[in-house]
Specification:
Elements (H helix, E strand, L loop, with lengths): L1 H12 L7 H16 L9 H22 L7 E2 L2 H11 L2 H12 L8 E2 L7 H11 L31 H8 L2 H5 L7 H23 L10 H11 L2 H12 L17 H17 L46 E13 L8 E8 L10 E4 L1 H4 L1 E9 L4 E9 L10 E9 L11 E7 L1 E2 L10 E8 L3 E2 L2 E6 L23 E5 L5 E14 L2 E11 L5 E8 L2 E4 L5 E3 L11 E4 L3 E6 L11 H6 L6 E7 L7 E7 L4 E4 L5 H14 L17 H8 L10 H6 L58 E2 L19 E2 L23 E2 L45 E4 L11
Helix pairs in contact: 1-9, 2-10, 3-4, 4-7, 9-10
Length: 853
């Protein structure tokens, strides 16, 4: 069987294609990136105007040039016309028909180059002006729409193909192929090989009379598009390969289970793997979900990109570079099992050395043994080995949890870094058997692994409290890394190493009879050396020896940003997880939880990124800062520290803000007292204020002011400290501290499940949840009414779905509590919060939305 599969793959690779698909794919990606910077081409009126120009001017000019060259150099196509031409050619059958009807032949792209690399643009512009004197070469959107008639236009040569719908269908494609690995030569070479396999598979189905809807992965689709953009070569090649021009159906986008696209992808996966013995999935080539919502609907045009001086050249902050790549893993089959084996098999996998990104042990089933396809997708550093342990558990009773280690093996991740690696491995690995197993033939495990190219990993830093809790702080702080205090913060990396200490202090200066007061942020190194990093006065902060400054936006804020940083670029701070950090919830919950008030996303705008690209995520609850680009490390830390001081009052475990306790300066900023400044959004203030809100929903909807959303909680902190029925939900229904000195306080807790935390403390009739563990998990309880009468409390539910117990009324009367270990038998497994676990796919099918193992 394997030999036959090898022969089929060899036959596929002998498929003749008369286009340099590797170079052409790179050119296509460059073009799509340019279109994405000009998103007016995605919709009216720009799209309508581009379609008119394409039909009225570009195609006639191309026809003239292909029949008798207008000049010797290549013809350059205007960007707007190129976008429509791109979309038209991606229906190769219709494009061929239209060209032959209007011009008698297929209008090819030979001797034509893209607008993004046009070296002969001047010659093309001159020829354009001669042919169409009343029409600019580049689309002028300010041109009156009624002036759409030009010299030499033949109205009947306009295609009836719906080019508006065609272009709009192609608009989301760039998001799926925009990651940098798609532009890597090794990755594209692998995609070309898979595309040839895709065509050969369709040919084999045709020969067998099998009608099927073949669905490509995105690396294959990129190459398929690239081939179609060379219309003459595509038609000739496909006629030779399979006797017909292969149509490209991009009209179906419904990925719902059981629909045409889902069924087609499942069938293509099974046929491809049966035919070649290679996995059809590939790291970096699977469906990424819908593109995140933009932060702006119009481009930001106020930025001129300058050279960014790296602040990390200063000894203030020096962080090691870390690489990361995406890994997909499947255990396909096992052979030479010990005689008499009758248990169920699985394989656990882990890294051989510490990895800040992937440091857990996961488990997957084996396809040939379970009949269920399971694929793990995760990120890790490209170092060390992946270790595999073949495990067996008795099939006598599901209650028996004894597991045997049959054998171990490994594969080196560093081998994928070799220039000769094609980033994919599928092979048999011999296991080193455990001591109790003696077999004449080595036990074999067939492992399939695919990786992307390594890219720089974001820096993740933590602001940790530099001094103990004050007496006014919560009795039961959230079980996360300690939040930083009001005036001091210790910056640590992921390994707990100190990077920098930050301190905010008042600075008084006397100038004659006038005395000025401003705040300064001071950085203190481990050696004790201190330097001033930022100075603030009223609503603006300036960073010392740096081009960056931070200020509140003017009242004519056009995109809802909270703050703006100006410097070599413009960086705007938006409430919630945005763009790359947008919540990946289902559509229903995504609408309900569009903004996560404790998160702030930093978005950079530049000439290359007029719609913005994320550079950092600031978690104002935990004090965690994730930074993508080195030049923004120090500015992001300073900004997070400054905002933390604005948005919380010392001693509140959710960094709560008490307006009446703010300094005049911070209060002015919060309420927008300056006449030209916009006030902080009420969501941000409410989410971080004990006075203004009963609690916060965090990353779910939670229950602020004692209101609970059933579908999903948020990752909450403290609710109302001195209020009635204050509380807060968490991930899947957990929360933090509820009403602290309240009557009838109702609270969620600190777990990640349907758990709870601190209920009513020093309260009467306090009712509390507990600390549920797991996702979708424990209906547990924690500390109920402390020093209370008739306190009723749940417990600590472990696992997923477990119901437990905890502390009842402490020093109280008639406390009622359940036990912490009861009712655990029906606890199931769990994935991550929102997206986690190893997704199971039966019958050989594979959902393109593969989740993290």
């Amino acid at each position: 069987m394997e030999k036959q599969q090898e022969l089929e793959w060899e036959a596929a690779q002998n498929t003749e294609i008369n286009v340099d698909l590797v170079s052409a794919a790179k050119r296509q990606l460059k073009f799509l990136e340019a279109v994405d910077r000009n998103r007016w081409l995605y919709d009216s009126p720009g799209l309508d105007r581009a379609i008119y120009r394409y039909n009225a001017y570009w195609l006639p000019m191309l026809a003239k040039h292909s029949e008798s060259p207008l000049f010797e150099a290549p013809l350059v196509v205007p960007l707007d016309c190129e976008w429509i031409w791109h979309s038209h050619r991606l229906n190769p059958v219709r494009y061929k028909k239209d060209c032959e009807e209007f011009y008698g032949r297929i209008l090819d792209n030979k001797n034509v180059i893209s607008s993004v690399e046009g070296t002969s643009r001047k010659q093309t512009e001159d020829a354009w002006k001669r042919l169409f004197p009343g029409e600019p070469f580049e689309l002028d959107l300010e041109l009156q729409q009624e002036n759409i008639s030009g010299q030499g236009v033949v109205a009947e040569n306009f295609t009836k193909y719906d080019l508006i719908a065609a272009a709009q269908r192609q608009a989301p494609f760039f998001y799926q192929v925009s990651q940098c690995h798609m532009n890597d030569t090794r990755y594209i070479i692998g995609a070309v090989a898979r595309y040839k396999g895709f065509l050969h598979l369709i040919k084999r189905n045709k020969e067998k009379g099998i009608k099927s809807f073949s669905v490509p992965t995105y690396d294959i689709d990129l190459i398929w598009h690239t081939h179609q953009l060379h219309p003459v070569s595509y038609c000739e090649d496909l006629l030779k390969i399979m006797g017909k021009i292969l149509e490209h159906d991009d009209t179906d986008s419904d990925r719902t289970k059981g629909q045409k696209l889902d069924v087609g992808f499942t069938g293509t996966t099974k046929t491809f793997e049966d035919l070649y013995g290679h996995r059809y999935w590939r790291a970096g080539a699977m469906y990424k979900g819908n593109a995140p919502s933009p932060v702006r609907l119009t481009p930001y045009l106020g930025t001129v990109t300058k050279k960014v001086a790296s602040l990390n050249e200063s000894p203030i902050v020096a962080l090691p570079a870390t690489k990361v790549f995406e890994v997909m893993l499947e255990f396909v089959s096992v052979r030479n099992l010990p005689e008499g084996h009758n248990g169920s098999l699985c394989v656990s996998f882990s890294k051989s050395q510490p990895d800040m990104i992937f440091n857990a042990k996961r488990t997957l089933k084996i396809l040939s043994e379970s009949g269920e396809k399971q694929v793990a997708c995760f990120q890790c550093e490209p170092t060390g080995n992946l270790l595999f342990e073949l495990m067996s558990s008795p099939s006598v009773s599901p209650l028996i949890k004894k597991v045997k280690n049959i054998g171990t093996t490994f594969i080196s991740l560093e081998d994928f870094l070799s220039p000769d690696s094609n980033l994919t491995v599928e092979k048999w690995l011999d296991l080193v058997p455990s001591s109790h197993i003696t077999e004449s033939k080595p036990i074999g495990l067939r492992v399939a692994i695919s990786v992307t190219i390594p890219t720089p990993a974001p820096h993740k830093l933590h602001m940790v409290r530099s001094r103990p809790f004050s007496k006014s702080s919560c009795l039961f702080p959230l079980p996360v890394r300690a939040q930083f205090s009001k005036n001091w913060a210790r910056i640590e990396d992921e390994e707990g190493n100190m990077v920098l200490n930050l301190h905010m202090r008042d600075q008084h200066k006397s100038k004659g009879k006038k005395e000025s007061r401003k705040k300064v942020v001071v950085g203190i190194m481990d050696s004790g050396k201190a330097c001033t990093l930022a100075e603030g006065a009223e609503s603006k902060w300036s960073m010392v020896n740096s081009p960056w400054s931070l200020k509140l936006p003017n009242t004519n804020n056009d995109d809802g940003h909270l703050f703006e940083m100006t410097g070599p670029h413009t960086v705007r701070l938006f409430l919630g997880g945005r763009l790359d950090y947008e919540s990946r919830r289902c559509a229903k919950h995504k609408a309900e939880h569009q903004h996560e008030p404790h998160l702030i996303t930093a978005v950079k705008f530049s000439t290359e990124e007029p719609y913005g690209t994320t550079v950092a995520l600031l978690d104002m609850k935990s004090g965690t800062v994730k930074v993508k680009e080195d030049w923004f490390v120090l500015p992001s830390l300073i900004v997070t520290f400054i905002l933390g001081n604005i948005l919380r009052n010392e001693g509140h475990c959710n960094m709560a803000l008490h307006s009446e306790e703010l300094s005049n300066e911070a209060h002015n900023i919060a309420v927008g007292k300056e006449t030209n400044q916009a006030p902080l959004p009420k969501e941000l203030v409410a989410a971080n204020t004990g006075v203004l809100a009963g609690g916060c929903g965090g990353c779910g909807s939670g229950c602020g002011n004692g209101v609970r959303t059933v579908e999903s909680g948020g990752c909450g902190g403290c609710g109302s400290m001195t209020a009635n029925t204050g509380g807060c939900g968490g991930c899947g229904g957990s929360g933090g501290c509820g009403s602290m000195m309240a009557k009838d306080g109702v609270s969620g807790g600190c777990g990640s499940g349907c758990g709870g935390g601190c209920g009513s403390v020093m309260a009467k009739d306090g009712v509390s949840g507990g600390c549920g563990s797991g996702c979708g998990g424990g209906c547990g309880g924690g500390c109920g009414s402390m020093m209370a009468k008739n306190g009723v409390s749940g417990g600590c539910g472990g696992g997923c779905g477990g119901c437990g117990g905890g502390c009842g009324s402490v020093m109280g009367n008639s406390g009622v509590s359940t036990g912490g270990s009861k009712n655990m038998e029906k606890s199931g497994g769990c994935g991550g919060c929102g997206a986690g676990g190893c997704v199971g796919m039966s019958d050989g099918g594979l959902n393109q939305e593969i989740v993290v193992a």
